[in-house]
Write a structure and sequence with these properties.
Blueprint lengths: L3 H11 L6 E17 L2 E19 L2 E7 L4 H12 L14 E2 L17 H16 L5 E19 L3 E20 L2 E7 L2 E2 L4 H6 L2 H16 L2 E2 L3 E7 L6 H8 L4 H4 L21 E4 L20 E6 L2 E2 L6 H7 L7 E2 L8 E2 L3 E4 L6 H6 L3 E13 L5 E13 L2 E7 L2 E5 H7 E4 L4 E9 L2 E9 L2 E9 L7
Parallel strand pairs: 4-6, 9-19, 10-17, 16-23
Antiparallel strand pairs: 1-2, 1-5, 2-3, 5-6, 6-7, 6-8, 10-24, 11-12, 11-16, 12-13, 14-15, 17-18, 18-19, 18-20, 20-24, 21-24, 22-23
Helix pairs in contact: 1-2, 3-5
């Protein structure tokens, strides 16, 4: 996208006033999307993101700027403007650049960009038509499919050039049910760093659509969830969003390096129950949150964060690693060239245990089975969270009983980690978008079904009984 000679000029202009590191991030990204709302094609869209960001580091200071004008004049002007943030003498000159080998492990058979909009529309229309069979109670059927292909070039003052191409697609299905009891909803959104064959062969989209409609309709007649402290069995897959939000973010170096995390300075200490092992793995082939390299050019890794309850590692980017005296471990990400990169999760999950779902349900005399979770919020500094259950049932005398709605799980990440006393053998991953200081990025959350011995459940159904 720019020549080596121009890249050298930009880097050296950036380093003129004493910065000890300079980096150019160039991005070209193509986005496509189609959606249907009931029987109406709602959107057919495509667009391109094109631009570059320049980052300068000096000791524990950083400056960042970006532009979508990649002319020589614009890029050199940006470099000089950023360099003016420092007032020292040049300590580094870059004389050559060498392209680094980046192995692409995400092999695709049908590139998403090669699939026509007509084929994508036919695909989502078939799903929407399947949802029609549930009758008038389903008042809104929404199906969308989006994909993007991103090409990045990272050039830094260590004399290295990295290039990578990333391809992702995601299907989202949601249903809105309504009757005299009110309005309820449910949704699901599978995705992958894989070609269209994932949606044709690996995902049973029609079965997912039927389940979404069934859950939305069942919630119409569900009772309000009672409130109180109780044991809770949390389902696999998207149930892992609690670990992601309340525990994963506090393990990112952007918080740890500044002592803004409840887990700062606790390496080697027990922070979770001994049955908990947690991993962030950006190397899983074709997974939604995976990359070949991170946005600093470092190879992604399988990082064991917690092993048998003991804190083993953090998610570290090179810059925050300076504060910590630790090297980056491939966990630096950003939404686009318009964001300065920092430490972020990729595919984060609690590893499989030995218990079965049946054993966990049977162990609870009176409690809640949160089969799937929805949205929520968390304070990343304290780990305090609340998450709504999308599909939940009471557990009575060791058996799944009536469905309930309006259940909210309220707690603290560090506290919940210590109260996980059973971990299932049914691990699953689920896809989502994670927002933080470096923008919104694709991530997987995941876990087997787990049992938390006690957690506060909010609901409007009165006291637990």
């Amino acid at each position: 996208m720019i020549s080596k000679s121009l890249a050298l000029d930009i880097l050296n202009a950036s380093l003129a006033t004493g910065a000890d590191f300079a980096e150019i991030f160039i991005e070209e990204k193509y986005n496509n999307g189609v959606s249907i709302d009931n029987d109406k094609i709602e959107t057919i869209s495509s667009g391109i993101i094109y631009g570059a960001g320049i980052r300068l580091l000096k000791d524990l200071r950083s400056v960042y700027g970006y532009t979508n004008d990649l002319s020589k004049k614009s890029l050199l002007s940006l470099a000089s403007t950023l360099a003016a943030s420092f007032q020292g003498e040049r300590i580094l000159t870059v004389t050559e650049l060498k392209k680094q080998k980046v192995k692409n492990v995400h092999v695709n058979k049908r590139h998403l960009s090669d699939v026509s909009k007509d084929e994508k529309i036919a695909f989502i229309t078939k799903i929407s038509d399947e949802m029609k069979t549930f009758g008038e109670k389903i008042v809104r059927r929404s199906v969308s499919f989006g994909d993007n292909t991103q090409h990045v070039i990272i050039i830094n003052s260590n004399g290295k050039i990295f290039e990578d191409t990333r391809e992702r697609g995601r299907l989202y299905i949601s249903a809105l049910a309504s009757d005299e009891n009110g309005i309820e909803s449910s949704g699901v959104g599978p995705g992958a760093s894989k070609g269209f064959e994932f949606f044709e062969n690996d995902v049973d989209a029609l079965a997912l659509a039927r389940n979404v409609c069934e859950v939305a309709i069942k919630k119409l007649t569900a009772k309000e969830c009672p409130s109180g402290k109780m044991p809770v069995v949390i389902g696999n897959g998207f149930g892992g969003v609690i670990f992601h939000e309340a525990c994963g973010h506090p393990l990112e170096a952007s918080s740890v390096a500044k002592n803004l995390s409840v887990f700062a300075n606790k390496l080697g200490q027990q922070i979770a129950s001994s049955v908990v092992t947690a991993i962030d793995d950006g190397t899983i082939v074709n997974e939604w949150g995976s990359n070949n390299i991170d946005d600093e050019g470092n190879k992604t890794q399988k990082i064991v964060l917690i092993k048998d309850g003991i804190l083993q590692n953090y998610l570290i980017d090179d810059f925050n690693g300076r504060r910590m005296g630790m090297k980056g471990n491939g966990a630096c990400r950003r939404q686009s060239y318009a964001y300065e990169p920092t430490s972020r999760m990729s595919n984060t999950y609690i590893a499989a245990g030995k218990s079965t779902v049946e054993e966990m349900i049977k162990s609870v005399k009176l409690g809640l089975y949160a089969k799937s979770l929805g949205g929520g919020s968390v304070n990343p500094t304290t780990g305090d969270f609340n998450f709504a259950a999308d599909e939940a049932y009471m557990i009575r005398d060791g058996k799944i009983a009536e469905m309930v709605k309006g259940a909210t799980l309220i707690g603290n990440g560090a506290d919940v980690l210590m109260k996980i006393d059973m971990v299932g053998n049914d691990i699953a991953l689920a896809q989502g978008m994670c927002g933080a200081s470096s923008g919104s990025i694709p991530v997987d959350v995941g876990q087997p079904t787990i049992r938390v011995s006690e957690i506060t459940v909010g609901g409007r159904g009165g006291a637990l009984k």
